[in-house]
Design goal:
Rossmann fold, disordered N terminus, five-stranded parallel β-sheet, alpha/beta, single chain
Length: about 425
């Protein structure tokens, strides 16, 4: 169908842009031929979006005529993006382009004629997408990425990155419990990737001790494929798997910025939901993992250092992801006895955003769960923090309701009535 610009996504008032899941484009070449400076600026901005990070984008002016002239002597790229004015310009220009265009090249047309008859004629001529001008950066991102999302194929997985604003704030505990809620309550197949290779705790929290894990993948980049990664996964529940960290110091874990790219790409093709347990550090690969995620959760405790770090991370990640919803954050370990704390309203005022939940300091239940290798929901299913983890899971996945209904005191009575 024709792609239309969505004004509510651009003014910040609508929630559709925040919730929309657009799968990243693969390594492809894209060449745009624009008529107007405004469209060229939108395409340039789209090229800076994280989802087009692997695409090689080149922008030229001149529209359809420039494209036809350029490809008389040069091979065509994977994707051609064309801006054109009137109806006649589109059809005649495409006929000329067809004589110089290589087989397999996909063409996106940006035009100002909003007509379904024209669109059908464009489809008949083999056009991949028609976008109504004026376009916003997200319209361009959506159109290019949509070319490589096959409708009948399994949906590309959503990556959720969880990171602490400071060490020791319980970000890993939150990540593991949220992943458990996604798998158990939302019945969504998920995997937790523990990226803290030296000191990761996911294996302990899930009571797993797999012989292999994420280190085997990151140190063998040439072997990474679906079958290889699948062998490294440890099954925790029917819907939850673990890509565990070795948590040993027998080697040094220094990585380049793109060290985990192939692992994440492979996980996307096999799992609907990937939860990254990102260690508290600011390096090339951790920043890349956070910027490349579909959603980010920052975990902080209510003190000054956490407030500063949360603000810095929030602003940096928001600037690096202009077409995504801002990072989410939660406050953890609130209400420690005799500890001076920054109250939630002051924290939210500084960040200019409300925390999605404030998790109270509950040392007994969290300590028992950690020592037993269990989740909070396993040892206290009706505890308030279990509900908070479910609430976080729903926000991060965009699913408003759990698939499995909660038990209530009316359950047995309703069951008897249904039996009758």
């Amino acid at each position: 169908m024709i792609s239309y610009a969505r004004q509510d996504q651009e003014d910040g008032t609508g929630s559709s842009a925040a919730e929309e899941h657009i799968a990243p484009a693969p390594r492809v070449s894209v060449q745009a031929f624009c008529e107007t400076v405004e469209t060229a600026a939108a395409v340039q901005s789209a090229g800076e979006d994280r989802r087009l990070d692997k695409a090689h984008l080149k922008i030229q002016m001149g529209g359809m005529a420039a494209a036809v002239e350029a490809y008389r002597t040069a091979p065509t790229p994977n994707v051609i993006l064309l801006e054109t004015e009137g109806r006649n310009d589109i059809l005649s220009g495409l006929d000329q382009l067809a004589t110089v265009c290589d087989a397999g090249t996909r063409v996106i047309v940006i035009g100002r004629v909003n007509d379904v008859v024209l669109y059908r004629e464009l489809v008949r001529r083999g056009i991949s997408d028609y976008v109504i001008a004026p376009v916003a950066p997200l319209d361009v991102v959506r159109s290019i990425c949509g070319l490589f999302s096959v409708p009948e194929a399994k949906a590309v997985g959503r990556i959720i990155a969880v990171v602490g604003a400071k060490g020791g704030v319980g970000a890993s505990t939150v990540a593991h419990n949220v992943a458990w809620a996604i798998a158990r309550d939302l019945a969504l197949d998920s995997v937790v990737a523990d990226l803290d290779l030296a000191f990761g705790t996911a294996g302990l929290d899930y009571n797993q001790d797999p012989p292999q894990g994420i280190a085997d993948a990151v140190f063998s980049p040439d072997r990474i494929d679906t079958a290889f990664v699948d062998r490294l996964l440890s099954k925790c529940t029917d819907h939850l798997s673990l890509l565990a960290a070795p948590a040993s110091l027998d080697r040094v874990y220094d990585f380049g910025a793109e060290a985990f790219d192939s692992i994440f790409d492979t996980l996307r093709t096999t799992m609907p939901c990937i939860v990254l347990d990102v260690p508290h550090q600011w390096s090339g690969w951790t920043k890349r993992a956070l910027v490349g995620a579909d959603d980010i959760l920052i975990v902080a405790t209510p003190d000054l250092a956490n407030l500063r770090n949360t603000k810095n991370m929030f602003d940096a990640l928001k600037a690096a992801r202009p077409n995504d919803r801002p990072p989410l954050y939660c406050i953890n370990q609130a209400g420690v006895p005799k500890r001076p704390e920054i109250n939630t309203s002051e924290f939210a005022k500084a960040i200019e955003s409300q925390p999605i939940v404030t998790i109270p300091f509950e040392p007994q239940i969290f300590g028992a769960a950690a020592n037993n290798g269990q989740m909070i929901a396993e040892i206290a299913a009706n505890h308030r923090t279990s509900e908070m983890f479910l609430q976080i899971a729903q926000r991060l996945t965009g699913r408003g309701e759990a698939k499995k209904p909660r038990n209530s005191f009316l359950g047995p009575l309703l069951g008897k009535l249904r039996a009758k």
